[in-house]
Task: inverse folding
């Protein structure tokens, strides 16, 4: 419980420091969705997370993972970063400090059958590759 509180405070401080520093509009006509290995979630290349401060990107891993649960829907289990409650709280906190961030566009935070299927296929391949890598080292 104390660890979660300390982490929330660190994330809150990071959001305050970097408030308004994420893109609100895309310069790309068709941005690609990319797998983000630290969170096991997905980002769109125009969201600006990896072009910004690494601390903000680290804090956002809870946000993008929770967002992925919204996109894939309840029938697909994608796990959590800390807990569903914690991840959702960080997601809501980020929406407060970055309300116009392109990553919070309804199209990127809502259930979408096609995107959900694609995410689940990519995650399956990523998990297979990771297991293969582990087995090669033995």
Result:
């Amino acid at each position: 419980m104390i660890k979660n509180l300390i982490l929330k405070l660190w994330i809150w401080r990071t959001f305050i420091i970097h408030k308004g520093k994420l893109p609100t509009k895309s310069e790309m006509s068709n941005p690609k969705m990319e797998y983000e290995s630290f969170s096991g979630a997905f980002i769109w290349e125009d969201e600006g997370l990896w072009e910004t401060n690494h601390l903000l990107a680290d804090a956002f891993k809870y946000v993008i993972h929770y967002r992925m649960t919204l996109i894939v829907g309840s029938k697909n289990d994608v796990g959590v970063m800390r807990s569903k409650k914690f991840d959702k709280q960080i997601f809501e906190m980020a929406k407060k400090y970055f309300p116009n961030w392109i990553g919070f566009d309804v199209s990127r935070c809502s259930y979408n059958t096609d995107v959900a299927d694609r995410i689940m296929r990519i995650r399956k391949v990523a998990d297979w590759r990771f297991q293969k890598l582990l087995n090669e080292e033995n």
